[in-house]
Write a structure and sequence with these properties.
The chain is of the alpha+beta class. Helices cover about 35% and strands about 30% of the residues. The protein has one domain. It contains four helices and six strands; from the N terminus they run αβααβββαββ. It has a two-stranded parallel ribbon. Strands 3-4 form a two-stranded antiparallel sheet. Strands 5-6 form a two-stranded antiparallel sheet. One of its GO terms (cellular component) is microtubule organizing center. One of its GO terms (biological process) is double-strand break repair via homologous recombination.
């Protein structure tokens, strides 16, 4: 039990890449499983007083607009959402990374 008391962060990398092949497009099953996963990760965080970081891939949606691959349901699961981007300047061939806070329970006006 001492191992769990020393853990402060759990990382689930690319959760969408695990869900999509297993479910094979069964939308109702995937929605239920995603919701259950979110609830269990939140409970894990509360029970063991730790942070949970889940990464999600971005996909090209309608008209090439980028969107999270886990869809709208997952956007309501985390308390904080951050989009990480890399912007490249084609003239100077340089790039920089940008982090955008999309959702936070600490933002004014959120519930």
């Amino acid at each position: 039990m001492s191992f769990f008391h020393s853990v402060k962060l759990v990382v689930v990398d690319s959760v969408a890449s695990v869900f999509h092949p297993v479910l094979g497009g069964k939308q109702m099953d995937s929605l239920a499983l995603l919701e259950q996963l979110g609830l269990q990760l939140k409970q894990l965080a509360v029970d063991f007083c730790l942070a949970v970081l889940v990464s999600n891939n971005m996909t090209s949606g309608f008209e090439g607009k980028k969107q999270p691959s886990l869809g709208r349901l997952w956007s309501h699961v985390p308390h904080t959402r951050i989009i990480l981007e890399r912007e490249t300047n084609s003239l100077t061939k340089t790039s920089h990374r940008k982090a955008v806070l999309v959702k936070s329970m600490r933002q004014v006006g959120t519930s």
